[in-house]
Structure formats: structure tokens, C-alpha cells
From TrEMBL:
SUPFAM superfamilies membership: Class I glutamine amidotransferase-like (SSF52317), Heme-dependent catalase-like (SSF56634)
Family in the record: Belongs to the catalase family. HPII subfamily.
Function summary: Decomposes hydrogen peroxide into water and oxygen; serves to protect cells from the toxic effects of hydrogen peroxide.
Protein name (database record): Catalase
Domain Catalase core stretches: 13-401
Cofactor(s) the protein needs: heme
A GO MF term: catalase activity
This enzyme's EC code(s): 1.11.1.6
Region described as Disordered: spans on this chain: 1-20, 393-421
Hydrolase keyword on record: no
Length: 678
């Protein structure tokens, strides 16, 4: 939009460019009279406002986006001819949108849910959209079932709740009758579904894709995104509380990290499977409910993505961005995965209704950065003024600049031989629904296994229909009998009540894959994490300085919290400005916390429920807590039993002492002393 300057001043105008004299008052018949229909300025403004919202995405409606770039480490020409993967100097612009799946656009950021991880690469050969999730497998094997699984998880249609939650009868009704979903259920009930930050999620292309070389050699690939600062989750009780304390927790975290220059980064990698190797795997590569353990086929890292710019406008970019798995570039191809094949249709179709017609590719966030030209014309929201009389080819009267086919460099589908009857049938090679569910569950550390059991018990306790719970217990028996027993106990049910499920293929004990565990891979870092320091009147200035320096050294963000937003005066008389008042910043918002209370302030803090809860929650959420000697009374009031994750800040170098402990992350060994499964 152009700024309208009259006399050197910027002016408000109507959409027709008419300068507006008064933006405060509508046109009335007398100062106290009714509004006049004649007021075209009011009508234009209100009409535009009335149409501000567009249909939200049926899934993944809640999303947060960012701009950035991708750069390869080296040429991947030996496996793909994709232009953006040929040269380590080539930088490709990207736009990423992270999302939850079930909730509406205004829902909270931290329900238990899968996270979408969609990347648009604006390559010189056209846009490549990698539309993945933070979980490497999916609930269903065939696109035919997608509307069913989505209707089951969305709020129930008669009552309009629950919003953004799978803990209700219709979801578990569907799941309990869909054995193919069991592997994904293990992931969805794991800590992966309550991430600490979008900056810390892994991403997966889920399906098997193809990489094709310039010579036409095709190999199968699975795409992986790995955050360079490691993956982490919150604990469930924290997720519940964060949803109230900051419904925008993930969106804000992503925005603030980019604003402070702490740019989120991921490595992009692929597992490469030679065509002949596919038959050696103990499952079908076309089945999207299966993964290939890294221990069997390691990931080859191709390059790094950095998100370094926040959107200028949430609606124009994050809301209007349109990803389609069918947006592909030469050197990359599809497999016959029946879920992927269905997606190739669905996304284009959804953009037509969401973005109002076939020209959504002209919206700036969607437009290729390379030139694009064809003979498609007109349509709703056409922004181009196409010139000339020819909108077809071949033509002998079109100008030399008219677009022509490009046999040398154009996209070619890999010529895979296909034969077969027309048939509606699931391949027998897709029938083992339990072995990889077991593999995932058994590859977790003990705390992670406990969390899966707790999540199942929580969710199933919200299902009032006993038969659904009994059927789920039957599935759990096939995944792991100990898990079945633990969940049954937590529900106050007996395993004898379980519905006996006949597995189409008896589950097998596959070799475990420790790389699936987040805790086992915890990088033990404070980088990208956030510390909260509670300060009071008279806080010891030198301890505070030592802590700030130590956190900065570790590249951790720090926020100060005081009983009042006006800040405090430290022991040396300096005024300390703070980011939050105590009531607005519960400890769930921080990865690690410190209480720097002074002698004169501690009495008031101990009497303040918000302060006691601050400490009690941080302890319950297994965080490392630092405290000044004067704050001991608050630790006691919160019922904290000192352990190696509670650090008394006394002696020389309190900053170093504290970060050494805080870097080790949550104290999982504290958990069994605080919480039972269920
Ligand atoms: Fe999908 C959106 C990821 C299966 C149909 N999907 C959507 C988004 C992500 C995924 C990340 C949000 C994109 C954005 O931020 O705008 N979807 C997946 C993954 C799947 C998957 C990883 C399985 C491996 N999806 C899937 C199937 C279908 C769809 C089987 C339909 C047959 N998905 C859609 C959709 C959405 C969508 C209805 C809603 C909004 C949109 O496309 O643009 O077309």
C-alpha cells in the first residue's frame, strides 16, 4: 500500500484513495441523531472489517510462522539433482509454519497434540513444500480415513467441546477400532506431544519420498529435521498450567527468540534407502505408520535451516501461507504411499476454498521467488495484468518471450513401472500394527515410559464409555503387558476387563532404538532455554550480577520477576527493572528458576501464595532451583525437600555453581517421589 502524503504528511484514505478528514465520528442526522446510510466511509470500513476472517484450516488452524533460509553443507548431487541441494554456497529462502492439529486458530499452544512442521523452500526451480509433523509416523494408512480421524479428534459436533484435546470419547472410540493407529498413539501420548518450544521439536516428512539424480537414478528417502539445541518437553502438569498462564507460550517463545537474535536452527537430513534395500526392511516403506530406526539406516545431514526473521504480518503471511505436498522440484519425487497420494489432492483443494480461488499462488508469501509463467488466466483475485492476445500454446503469433515447455530442465516424473488391478484393498504388508508401537515404547527411558502410561490414563479417564477403555486395554496388551497393567491400575480397572484383540500379525520384538528417546539425547545445555530470577527489595546485587553473567555465557535468556512490576532496589542501591510481576509470571514459564530474596523481603514472600506456588511448582516440575540463604524459608514453606537440583547460592562464584547444575536439566529422579502414574 502506498503512503498518501498531502503537504508532506501521511494521510488516512479510503480504499479508493480519498483522504479521510474524520476517523472518529460517523455521519449522523444531527449530533445526537441516527446514522446516515450515505456514510460510504463508515460502510467501507465496517464492510472490510466484517470480512477480515477467512475460513480457518480444518486441521492445523493454530500456527506460528517465521522466515529464514536453508544452506546445504555440501553438494548432494550423488543422490538428487534438486537445485537447492547442489552447492554449499547456495542460500534458499524458506517460510516455516508450525502448528497444532486439533484446535482452532485461537486455541492454546500447549494441548497434548501433534505439531505440524511445514517448510516452504523458495528454490530457483519453484517452491518445494515439505509438509511434515514432529512425529515420524501417522494415525492412518490411507487418505480415505483422514476425515474420520479428524472428525473423531475435533470437538464433538453436538456440544462443541472439548477444544484442542484428544481426551474425549469420540477420539478414543475411533482409535480403539483402528489398530493401525497404535504406533502413532504411543508417540502422541509421549512427551513429544507437549514440546517445551517449537524451537526444540524434531520434524519428519513422514512418508517415503524419492531422490532422483541427474542421471535418473532413484532412491527412497525419509526426511528429518533436527533442532541444533536439542529436543525437550514440558511435564504434563506444567502444560496444563502454561495453557492458562500464557496461551501463546510457543508463539511468543519463537517470536522472542528471533527478536533477541537467538535464531532457531535445524539440520535437514535424509535416510537413504536404495531401491533394492526396501525389501530387506521388516515393514513396507509405503506404510506411513512405520519408521526406520536410525540404528538401521543412519541420517545423512544435508544442510542447515535458520529462522532469522519474524513475519511482518501474521495474517498476510502465517495465515495465508498455503503448503501443498504436491509442490515439488526436479530431483525429488513421490512414493506410492496411499496417504501421500491422497494428500497430493487434498491441499490444493483446501487452498481453493480457504484462500478464495485459484490465484492463491500470487499472495506474496506463496509466490515463487523464481520467475513463473504459463497460460492460466483470470479467476477470482487475479493480481496480474497479463498482456497480449495469446493465452495458449502452440502459437505462431505469440511473442518470442512467451513461455514454452522446458524438456531439458523441466520436472519429470520418475518412470516407475506400475501394473495391477483396480482394487480397494489394504496391502498385507501393512498389517503389522503393534511391533513398532512396542519398539517405540520399549525404546523410551523409564520416566518417558511413565509419562506415556500417565497420558493414556489421563486421556482414557476422560472417556466415560467403559467399553472404549476396555478395548484400549486390549490393544495395550499387544504393545506391552506391563504398560497395559500400569494403565489399568491407574484407571482403577483390571486387565481382566480388557477386550481381547486378535492382531492380524502377531507383534514381534524388534531391536530397540535408543535414538527415539528425547531424554537419552538431552544435550544438557542452557542454550536457548529461559531462566527466571525472582528478585525482591534488597536483593544481593553481586549474586544477581554473577548469575546474569553465567546465564549469558551459556546463551540462556533471563527474565526478572519481582513482587511488583515497578521493580526493586538492590542491596547496593541500584534500581532493578523487571520483566514481570510475580502474579503474571508463574515458574512454569521458565526452564530453571532462582529466588534471590533478601532478609527484609522474605517474610512477605512466605505469606504470598503466588511466591510459594512459584517454588512448589518449579520443584514439582523437576526444575533446578537456586536460592539465596535468605530464601530458605520460602523453600521450606513450599515443602521442598533439598536434593542435588536445589542449589544454595552461597560462597564464591554462585553463577558458575548454579549453571553447572541447571545445565543438567530436569531432575527425573525426583519425579517418583512426587507423583504417581495416572
Ligand atoms: Fe495434512 C494441513 C501435515 C495428512 C489434509 N497437514 C497440514 C499442515 C501440516 C500437515 C503440517 C499445516 C500446513 C500449514 O501450516 O498450513 N498432514 C500432515 C502430515 C500428514 C498429513 C505430516 C501425514 C503424514 N493431511 C493429511 C491427509 C490429508 C491432509 C491424509 C487429507 C487427505 N492437511 C490436510 C488439509 C490441510 C492440512 C485439510 C489443512 C490446511 C491445509 O491443508 O492447508 O488439506
Amino acid at each position: 500500500m502506498h503512503q498518501v502524503a498531502v503537504d508532506g504528511e501521511p494521510h488516512l484514505t479510503t480504499n479508493q484513495g480519498l483522504p479521510i478528514a474524520d476517523n472518529q465520528n460517523s455521519l449522523k442526522a444531527g449530533v445526537r441523531g441516527p446514522l446516515l446510510l450515505e456514510d460510504f466511509i463508515l460502510r467501507e470500513k465496517i464492510t472490510h472489517f466484517d470480512h477480515e476472517r477467512i475460513p480457518e484450516r480444518i486441521v492445523h488452524a493454530r500456527g506460528s510462522g517465521a522466515h529464514g533460509y536453508f544452506q546445504p553443507y555440501e553438494s548432494a548431487a550423488d543422490i538428487t539433482s534438486a537445485g537447492f541441494l547442489q552447492d554449499p554456497k547456495k542460500i534458499t529462502e524458506v517460510f516455516v509454519r508450525f502448528s497444532t492439529v486439533a484446535g482452532g486458530a485461537g486455541s492454546v499452544d500447549l494441548p497434548r497434540d501433534v505439531r505440524g512442521f511445514a517448510v516452504k523452500f523458495y528454490t530457483e526451480e519453484g517452491n518445494f513444500d515439505l509438509v511434515g509433523n514432529n512425529i515420524p509416523v501417522f494415525f492412518i494408512q490411507d487418505a480415505m480415513k483422514f476425515p474420520d480421524v479428524v472428525h473423531a479428534v475435533k470437538m464433538e459436533p453436538d456440544r462443541g467441546f472439548p477444544q484442542a484435546a484428544s481426551a474425549h470419547a469420540t477420539f478414543w472410540d475411533f482409535i480403539s477400532l483402528t489398530p493401525e493407529s497404535m504406533h502413532m498413539i504411543m508417540w502422541a501420548m509421549s512427551d513429544r506431544a507437549i514440546p517445551r518450544s517449537l524451537r526444540m521439536i524434531e520434524g519428519f516428512g513422514v512418508h517415503t519420498f524419492r531422490f532422483i539424480t541427474a542421471k535418473g537414478v532413484s532412491r527412497f528417502v525419509k526426511f528429518h529435521w533436527r533442532p541444533t539445541i536439542g529436543s525437550a518437553a514440558v511435564v504434563w502438569d506444567e502444560a496444563v498450567k502454561i495453557s492458562g498462564a500464557d496461551p501463546d507460550f510457543h508463539r511468543r517463545d519463537l517470536w522472542e527468540a528471533i527478536e533477541r537474535g537467538d535464531f532457531p536452527e535445524w539440520e535437514l537430513g535424509v535416510q537413504v534407502i536404495e531401491e533394492g534395500q526396501a525389501a530387506d526392511l521388516d515393514f513396507d516403506l509405503l506404510d506411513p505408520t512405520k519408521l526406520i530406526p536410525e540404528e538401521i539406516i543412519p541420517i545423512r545431514m544435508l544442510g542447515k535451516m535458520v529462522l532469522n526473521r519474524n513475519p511482518d504480518n501474521h495474517f498476510a503471511e502465517t495465515e495465508q501461507v498455503a503448503y501443498c505436498p504436491s509442490h515439488i522440484v526436479p530431483g525429488i519425487g513421490f512414493s506410492d504411499d496411499p496417504l501421500l497420494q491422497g494428500r497430493l489432492f487434498s491441499y490444493l483443494d483446501t487452498q481453493l476454498s480457504r484462500l478464495g480461488g485459484p490465484n492463491f499462488h500470487q499472495i506474496p508469501v506463496n509466490a515463487p521467488r523464481c520467475p513463473f509463467a504459463n497460460n492460466q488466466r483470470d479467476g477470482l483475485r487475479q493480481m496480474h495484468v497479463h498482456k497480449g492476445r495469446v493465452a495458449y500454446e502452440p502459437s505462431q503469433i505469440s511473442p518470442p518471450s512467451a513461455p514454452r515447455e522446458c524438456p531439458m530442465h523441466g520436472f519429470r516424473t520418475h518412470p516407475e513401472a506400475e501394473t495391477g488391478e483396480k482394487i480397494r484393498k489394504r496391502s498385507d504388508t501393512f498389517a503389522d500394527h503393534y511391533s513398532q508401537a512396542r519398539l517405540f515404547y520399549r525404546s523410551m527411558t523409564v520416566p518417558e515410559q511413565n509419562h506415556i502410561a500417565s497420558a493414556l490414563a489421563f486421556e482414557l479417564a476422560k472417556v466415560e464409555i467403559v467399553g472404549i477403555r476396555q478395548r484400549m486395554l486390549g490393544h495395550l496388551a499387544l504393545i506391552d503387558p506391563v504398560l497395559q497393567q500400569t494403565v489399568a491400575d491407574a484407571l482403577g480397572m483390571s486387565v481382566k476387563e480388557s477386550v481381547k484383540i486378535q492382531a492380524a500379525v502377531a507383534p514381534r520384538d524388534l531391536a530397540l532404538s535408543p535414538s527415539l528417546s528425547m531424554i537419552a539425547k538431552d544435550p544438557q545445555t542452557l542454550k536457548g532455554r529461559k531462566a527466571g530470577i525472582l528478585v525482591t527489595e534488597g536483593t544481593d546485587a553481586s549474586t544477581l550480577q554473577a548469575l546474569l553473567a553465567a546465564f549469558s555465557n551459556e546463551k540462556a535468556a533471563v527474565e526478572l520477576i519481582a513482587p511488583k512490576i515497578g521493580g526493586v532496589t538492590a542491596s547496593n542501591g541500584s534500581a532493578i527493572a523487571v520483566h514481570h510481576s510475580l502474579s503474571g509470571a508463574p515458574s512454569v514459564l521458565f526452564d530453571t528458576v532462582v529466588i534471590l530474596a533478601s532478609e527484609k523481603a522474605i517474610g512477605d514472600l512466605v505469606r504470598e501464595a503466588a511466591a510459594v506456588n512459584w517454588v512448589r511448582d518449579a520443584f514439582g516440575h523437576l526444575k533446578v532451583i537456586g536460592y539465596s540463604p535468605e530464601a530458605t524459608a520460602l523453600m521450606e514453606a513450599a515443602g521442598v525437600e533439598p536434593d542435588d537440583g536445589t542449589v544454595l547460592l552461597a560462597g564464591a562464584n554462585p553463577g558458575k555453581t548454579f549453571v553447572r547444575s541447571a545445565k543438567q536439566g530436569r531432575r527425573w529422579d525426583r519425579e517418583p517421589t512426587l507423583r504417581s502414574i495416572g
